[in-house]
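The instructor's notes for this session suggest beginning with a concrete chain rather than abstract definitions. Hand out the sequence below and ask the class to guess, before any prediction is shown, which regions might be ordered.
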Amino acid sequence: MRPLKMDDPDLPLADLIRYWPDTVPVFLRHKMLCVGCLISPFHTLVDACAEYGLDEREFLAELQDAANL
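After discussion, reveal the predicted structure:
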């Protein structure tokens, strides 16, 4: 199995949250329902940013900051 990379556009949100739990507050701060959502195993960061109207690069930077990456 290849190592997970947060910036992988195919990484499901469920995996991102599971491997980097310190990112949960970032999702909540943006009032995103991704944490615990039944669709999170199928949605990616790209999908979530499109759904919530967020800039992908800025949001990814916030997540990486929270995960100390």
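Then share the key points. The chain is about 45% helix and 0% strand. The two ends are 20 Å apart (CA to CA).
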